[in-house]
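wait is this the right file?? whatever heres the structure
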């Protein structure tokens, strides 16, 4: 193998590792920005965050017993950080909307 082939292989390998690490988090960036901008988190499910947090925590714990590739470990760590940021944002947005409630309907008359 020549050095050019070796460097091309290492560059492709490095790009693949970066895509693996950041590829799972990338779709949540526009969603985070939209929720922050609009102040509305109604379309986002916290159950998805729970499932991803659980899966990635289990993957990290599994790594201690049987180490696997470092990019997958970094992907899990980064995904946990992203999900915790999403949960934090959604809880803040939803609590803000609960604090500023709409006027409650009050029954003031008799039913005829």
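ok assuming it is, sequence goes like this
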């Amino acid at each position: 193998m020549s050095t050019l082939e070796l460097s091309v292989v290492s560059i492709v390998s490095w790009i693949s590792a970066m895509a693996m690490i950041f590829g799972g988090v990338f779709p949540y960036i526009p969603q985070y920005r939209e929720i922050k901008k609009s102040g509305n988190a109604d379309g986002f499910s916290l159950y998805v965050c729970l499932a991803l947090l659980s899966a990635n925590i289990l993957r990290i714990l599994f790594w201690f017993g049987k180490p696997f590739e470092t990019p997958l470990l970094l992907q899990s760590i980064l995904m946990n950080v992203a999900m915790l940021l999403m949960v934090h944002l959604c809880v803040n947005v939803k609590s803000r909307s609960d604090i500023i409630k709409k006027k409650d309907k009050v029954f003031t008359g008799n039913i005829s």
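The chain is about 75% helix and 0% strand. so i think its the right one actually
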